[in-house]
Amino acid sequence: MTASAAVTAGYTLAAGPVRADVIKTDTSGLTAGDAMIKVSDGEMPGYFARPAGVSNPPVVLVAMEIFGLHEYIKDVTRRLAKLGAFAVAPDYYFRKGDLTKIADMPQLLPIVNSKPDAELLSDLDSTVAWAKSQGGDTSRLGIIGFCRGGRTVWEYAAHSSSLKAGAAFYGPLVDPPNPVWPKSPTQLAGDMKAPVIGLYGEADTGIPVATVEAFKTALAANKKTAEFKIYPAAPHGFHADYRPSYRKDAAEDAWAQMQAWFRKYGVLS
């Protein structure tokens, strides 16, 4: 897919070239669209999808990568709705503008790295409250996230006593020094309040397998419920079907693992 076609289709430029055969999930049987979510200092944009005509669907938060609320994240939201969830992807970087319009990684990274964890967690709590006000069943609350959003899954699992389960796709576990990120997921091992499945790639150059194993050990030492699956030869971003990092077999298995996990812990029926 050419850069202009990718932008027209709603993808981000910062992640690089977009694969021609990206997955496209239709809205048949769904109600889907844009949302405005009340947060502490205004209104946050978001995208939601839910099964049409179904009352009290479970709520699943979708925590995006660093590239903004673009078509891949919206498609994931629709995929979850096809599974019966009221899925919501909040654009929690909105205060800095539309990240999908930024093509330059050196420009993008300082923006996303300046997002305070406290504000992020508050934005997610506000998203849960919005979903409840729209008829979602927040007693069956889940969260799924990719890349930086995978880190967000771990952070939110340590924060929210309402969360039933999470699925973290290749979320970083150890943070670089950052005054607005008080604790990395690994430092929060003892604070986890919900079971999380971690889905990681063996060939992820940014998240060594040793780091995953160390976190797994820390969670077990704290008697926290978590499982990990590490996909042989899979790189970072193996689920991102719009990028060259996509690995079909790993992506499909990880998606199945997420569904089984959410069913086990009562998020999905």
From TrEMBL:
Annotated InterPro entries: AB_hydrolase_fold, Dienelactn_hydro, Dienelactone_hydrolase-like
Residue ranges occupied by any Dienelactone hydrolase domain in the UniProt entry: 44-265
Pfam families noted in UniProt: DLH (PF01738)
Record GO terms (molecular function): hydrolase activity
Keywords, sorted A to Z: Hydrolase
Ranges that cross the membrane: none
PANTHER family listed in its UniProt record: ALPHA_BETA-HYDROLASES SUPERFAMILY PROTEIN, CARBOXYMETHYLENEBUTENOLIDASE-RELATED
Name the UniProt record assigns to this protein: Dienelactone hydrolase family protein
Taxonomic source organism: Bradyrhizobium australiense
